[in-house]
Design a protein that fits this description.
This protein is mainly alpha-helical and about 290 residues long. It contains 12 helices and no strands. The protein starts with a helix and ends in a 6-residue tail after the last helix.
Length: about 290
C-alpha cells in the first residue's frame, strides 16, 4: 500500500476516534447531574469507578475475538495490533449512525495491510457471532419477567446447553478460531452483564440478589442496542429495553438510577479502553525504527 494512502487511512480513523471521544465526553458531562443529584458514599463512588475500569478492561476480549475472526479469514494479526486498532476505532460507535467504529476499524485495518474485503467479512462474522452469543440469555430473562421463578433453574440449564451446542457446532462447521471468538464474546457479555448487576447493587436502595437475572437483562438490552440501526452505542434503545425488563426487579426510582449510572460506567469504560489502545499505539510507534535507522 502506498505511504500516502496508508497515512490518509490512519488519519481518517483517528479523526473518527477523536470525534467519538468528544461525544462520549459530552454525554458523560450531560449525565453529571445523575451523580450529583444522589448523595453517594465514598464506597459507592469507588465501586462505580472500579466497575468502569473492569468494563474498560473487558474491551480487549472483543479485540481478541476480532483477531480470531481475522485468523479464520486467513489474516494473521498480532494481539497488540488487534487491541490497538479495535480500541482506537471502537469509540466511534458513539457517533450518530452507529457505524463509524466499523468505518474507523476498516480504515485502520487497511492501513495495516489487511484486505478491505477481509475486514468487511470480519464485521459480518462479528455481528453474527455477537447475536448468536447473546440470544440464549432471553431464556434467563423470561422467567423473571413473566414471574415464573420456578422455571429459573430450567432456564439456566437451557442457556448452558444452548451455548455448549453453539460452541460445538461452530467448531465442527467453521473451525477452532471462530469457536474461540464465540467464547471470547460470551466472556465479554458475562463480564459486562455482571458489571451492570454490580452497578445495581452499588447504587440501589432496593435489596437485590438476582445477579444472573440482572446480568441477563443487560445482555438482552445490549443486543437490542447493537442491532437497532442509527442509535449511537445503543443509546436510548438500551435504556428503554432495560427499564422494561427491570420493571419486575426494581422500583422505578432504583431502575432509573441504575440505568443512568450504568451508562456512565460503560461510557467511562470505553474511554479507558480507548486510552489504553492509544498508549499501546504510542509504544508501538516509539519502538518502530525510523527510515534513517
Amino acid at each position: 500500500m502506498k505511504a500516502s494512502i496508508k497515512t490518509f487511512l490512519h488519519r481518517a480513523g483517528s479523526v473518527l476516534a477523536i470525534a467519538g471521544l468528544a461525544l462520549v465526553v459530552q454525554r458523560l458531562y450531560a449525565q453529571h447531574d445523575t451523580l450529583q443529584a444522589v448523595h453517594f458514599s465514598k464506597l459507592q463512588y469507588l465501586s462505580i469507578a472500579g466497575l468502569a475500569m473492569i468494563y474498560g478492561l473487558s474491551g480487549w476480549l472483543l479485540a481478541m475475538a476480532w483477531q480470531k475472526i481475522l485468523a479464520h479469514l486467513g489474516t494473521r494479526m498480532p494481539a497488540s495490533s488487534a487491541i490497538r486498532i479495535y480500541g482506537l476505532s471502537q469509540i466511534g460507535k458513539y457517533l450518530p449512525g452507529n457505524i463509524f467504529h466499523l468505518a474507523g476499524r476498516q480504515g485502520l485495518g487497511m492501513a495495516e495491510g489487511v484486505p478491505s474485503w477481509t475486514l468487511i467479512k470480519s464485521t459480518v462474522w462479528e455481528l453474527g457471532l455477537m447475536c448468536t452469543t447473546a440470544s440464549p440469555f432471553l431464556l434467563l430473562v423470561a422467567p423473571a419477567y413473566f414471574r415464573l421463578e420456578r422455571l429459573q433453574d430450567a432456564a439456566v440449564a437451557g442457556v448452558a446447553l444452548l451455548l455448549m451446542v453453539f460452541a460445538w457446532v461452530i467448531r465442527r462447521v467453521w473451525g477452532t478460531p471462530l469457536m474461540q471468538a464465540f467464547l471470547l464474546h460470551l466472556l465479554f457479555l458475562c463480564v459486562a452483564g455482571l458489571v451492570f448487576a454490580g452497578v445495581a447493587n452499588a447504587v440501589s436502595v432496593d435489596r437485590i440478589g438476582a445477579w444472573g437475572t440482572l446480568a441477563s437483562c443487560f445482555v438482552i438490552a445490549w443486543l437490542m442496542g447493537l442491532v437497532v440501526p442509527g442509535a449511537p452505542a445503543g443509546i436510548g434503545i438500551r435504556e428503554l429495553v432495560l427499564l422494561g425488563l427491570l420493571a419486575n426487579q426494581l422500583s422505578t426510582e432504583a431502575a432509573l438510577l441504575t440505568v443512568g449510572v450504568s451508562r456512565i460506567v460503560t461510557a467511562a469504560g470505553d474511554v479507558l479502553f480507548w486510552l489504553g489502545a492509544l498508549t499501546l499505539a504510542q509504544l508501538v510507534r516509539s519502538k518502530t525504527p525510523s527510515v534513517t535507522d
